[in-house]
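User: For my dataset I need records formatted as: sequence, then structure tokens, nothing else. Please produce one.
Assistant:
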Amino acid sequence: MTFSAGAVTLGSIPSPSDGVIHLGPVPLHMYGLMIALGVVVAAKVGRTRYVKRGGDGEAFDSIGFWGVVGGVIGARLYHVITDYQLFEGHWERSIQIWRGGLGIWGAVVGGALAVFVVARRRHVDFAPIADAVVPGLAFAQGIGRWGNWFNQELFGEPSTLPWAVEIDRAHRPVEYINERTFQPTFLYESLWCVALGFALIALDRKFKFARGQLFALYAAGYTMFRFVMEEMRVDPAHTIGPLRINAWVSILVFVFSVGVFLYLGRRARARGVTVSGPETGEIELDEGAELST
């Protein structure tokens, strides 16, 4: 693994020109390693939280495995479908995930669907698993974004900021071929995701949320920032009207998530159902008890 050639601008972030490290004859793709590391962190955080709330650790492990499989498949399908022009005439590249290209919405939908189906077959409640996992999922996204740095992708417009990222000519959009440093949107999103993960843990300890509300908070918190990052990026993307497709998806998911969060809270207040409690796993609410929304 080497870093981009040429003089390094004072204060800028150099990029590796090759996202592969070699252990003898074995090539290791850093994009894949970052994704794998993120999965390990998400599983560890999720399992710890689930067991702490009285869940079965072994059940979490077996269900989580299929969640990872479903998430990877869904993430790749989302990318291939929304950026199909990148694969026309070379469809064999559609399985080369180490070259980049995993859509978060495909990962969430694919992983959630797999967890839901397997959990249902094993008579395990889905919502507590989802709420246990989401902080770790945010951490995993924060780690995974560094895979984009190794691949020199997901950057914004040209910038001379001290933390601008250097991009080799081969990875620059044609209209910016003579620029060298760009906004590191991958870094901004990574930092936001890590902060979001810690915020979700802190909020979960402080408030009594209805089952599913924490997952809704995660989706709303992520999409709020993703919309901004999506509009900063300069890589080619399909658009609908003035916005990129992923920006529209962020708007829709944000609105839907806020609506779900409010609905779940009001329903729990009205019915006095079980909600997640700070540090104590779960508690029962009496009819009309207060619930933070």
